[in-house]
């Protein structure tokens, strides 16, 4: 089943067209990776999936993004309800300057949960889900900024999980991390797909081939080719994809 279906999506920043005729199905409980050279539209598309581009002036979108069958650009629910269901994790770990506990409890609190016991349960479950509980369970009242970058990124993932999303968008989630933290996040992503649908942008082709099920190759604002990851890397249909995945450009 497809969690998200993108149909003929075009996007402009002012006069500049950043996405052209994007068509892509994102299957449920899989990892979909976006690869391609710098500036080809990967971040723009991932941000379009929970309407983060609404925050950019002069950004115009045409086409459809169906989430569970409903077009997110024509829905009646507020955008905050969409972002609860489709969470986002960024390249730089960006915890709030608050305690680890308050970072993870932030989303549930904004959605009206006040009861301490309920919050305790959500915080523990989310930190466990993000594979960082054992490392931080005794320092929940310490600032989230005081732990390592890899731990901060997993706390940010826990913060996203705390509001029970269905989809996690990850824009280069490991590019600011060392190899050991990267390996932990990769293992975590593979585990998370049992319960969530994951879309990630990565510059690291080994990473895409290690953890994604489906890969889309972007060039100049277009998707050139989408396929099962193994096939896209070993038997791409398009010459441009073959040149990119073999390192001939980009
Ligand atoms: N807010 C914006 N206003 C105007 N142009 C933008 C804006 N954001 C991105 N662009 C342009 O849109 C194009 C696509 O950018 P985008 O960040 O989506 O590419 P990307 O593939 O994610 O690149 P990278 O791999 O370097 O992060 C680029 O030409 C970029 O300069």
Automatic annotation (TrEMBL):
Listed name of the protein: Phosphate ABC transporter ATP-binding protein, PhoT family
Keyword ATP-binding on entry: yes
SUPFAM superfamilies noted in UniProt: P-loop containing nucleoside triphosphate hydrolases
Species for this entry: Pisciglobus halotolerans
Keywords on record: ATP-binding, Nucleotide-binding, Phosphate transport, Transport
Annotated CDD domains: ABC_PstB_phosphate_transporter
GO molecular function terms attached to this record: ATP binding; ATP hydrolysis activity; phosphate transmembrane transporter activity
Any one Pfam family match given in the protein's UniProt record, by short name: ABC_tran
């Amino acid at each position: 089943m497809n969690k998200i279906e993108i149909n003929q999506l075009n996007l402009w920043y002012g006069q500049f067209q950043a996405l052209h005729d994007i068509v892509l199905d994102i299957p449920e409980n899989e990892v979909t990776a976006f690869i391609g050279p710098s500036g080809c539209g990967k971040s723009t598309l991932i941000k379009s999936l929970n309407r983060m581009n609404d925050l950019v002036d002069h950004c115009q979108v045409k086409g459809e993004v169906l989430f569970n069958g409903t077009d997110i650009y024509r829905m009646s629910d507020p955008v905050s309800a969409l972002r609860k269901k489709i969470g986002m994790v960024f390249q730089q770990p960006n915890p709030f300057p608050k305690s680890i506990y308050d970072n993870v409890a932030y989303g549930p609190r904004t959605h009206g949960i006040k009861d301490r016991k309920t919050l305790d349960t959500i915080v523990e479950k989310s930190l466990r889900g993000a594979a960082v509980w054992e490392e931080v369970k005794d320092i929940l009242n310490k600032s989230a900024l005081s732990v390592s970058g890899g731990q901060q990124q997993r706390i940010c993932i826990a913060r996203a999980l705390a509001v029970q999303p269905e989809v996690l968008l990850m824009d280069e989630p490991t590019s600011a991390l060392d190899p050991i933290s990267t390996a932990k996040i990769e293992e975590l992503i593979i585990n998370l797909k049992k319960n969530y649908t994951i879309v990630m942008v990565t510059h690291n082709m080994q990473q895409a081939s290690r953890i994604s099920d489906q890969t889309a190759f972007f060039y100049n604002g277009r998707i050139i080719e989408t396929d099962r990851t193994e096939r896209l890397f070993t038997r791409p249909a398009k010459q441009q994809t073959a040149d990119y995945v073999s390192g001939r450009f980009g």
